[in-house]
Amino acid sequence: MSESTERRQRGYREIFLDPTVPEPSASTPDAPADDEGHPQARRVPWFILALAGLFLVSVAASALQASGGTQGAGNPAAPPAAQQKDYDGFFLPGDDLASALEEARRSGRRGVAVLFEMEGCGECAKLRATTFKDEKLRASYNEQFVTLSLLADHPLPLVDFDGQATEQTEFAQRERVFALPTLVFYDLDTLPVARQVGSAGEVADWVRLARYVAERGYDEAPFSHWQPAN
Questions:
Q1: pTM of the full predicted structure?
Q2: Could you tell me if 83 and 94 are in contact, meaning their C-beta atoms sit under 8 angstroms apart?
């Protein structure tokens, strides 16, 4: 295991580095009883939901690979034809996180913003067709981050932040991406410092999120409580 990967995993364990996601509780209380003393249904623990999501993503990826319907002839890692579509110049498909990180450092940006999505994802399409059309948002993200898109449901080849060969599906699972779309911000040390799940929220909230990461607001407070200096 590389030093940076070890550091990132240690960070997850010690301080839960995704401030936009509530930290899971350490224990699950006993189920409350109703008026007659019968136990009520217990809320499903967060890690069970996470494992279920991971299983569904794995099943979807396996089904796509087995069907061959979305793969190029003679190349099991070929991107699906739909991936060739016009991404409108924003969060373009990528396959080399190490190079993206190098570009971010060289250009003076704050880090790398990775959009995890999949073909046929309605919420992913909605995000691109609405929020991501805003010019102010685009300018803010492109100025502060190197942006790229990964397919969480397809085993396309990928070079991770450590320069190691992997697959986009495997990387998404490793990064605990269980719902799509998910946008994850990585700082220049490859630490995932913030994430946004789904397509909800006003454009202003997404712009504020970019500023939150660029100004290291996560060192001060969770995103929901953070107030910019001016």
A1: 0.69
A2: no
Farthest-apart Cα atoms in the chain, separation: 66
Low-confidence ranges of the chain (pLDDT < 50): 9-19, 21-31, 39, 41-51, 57, 59-79, 81-84
- CA 156 distance to own-chain centroid: 16
- Dihedral (CA of 73, 76, 80, 84) sign: negative
Residue 88 is which amino acid?
A: D
Domain spanning 3-21+44-68+85-219, CATH class? alpha beta
Nearest to 9 by CA among 222, 218, 177, 191: 191
Where do the H-state alpha helices sit in the chain? 3-15, 46-67, 97-107, 122-129, 135-144, 168-174, 203-214
**What local confidence, expressed as pLDDT, does residue 228 receive?**
87
Q: Which helix (H) or strand (E) holds 86?
A: none
Q: What is the pLDDT of residue 230?
A: 76
Which two structure tokens, joined as six digits, stand for 58?
Answer: 């794995």
Residue 97 in contact with residue 114, Cβ under 8 Å? yes
Distance (Å, whole) CA 33 – CA 37: 5
Bridge partner list, 197? 182
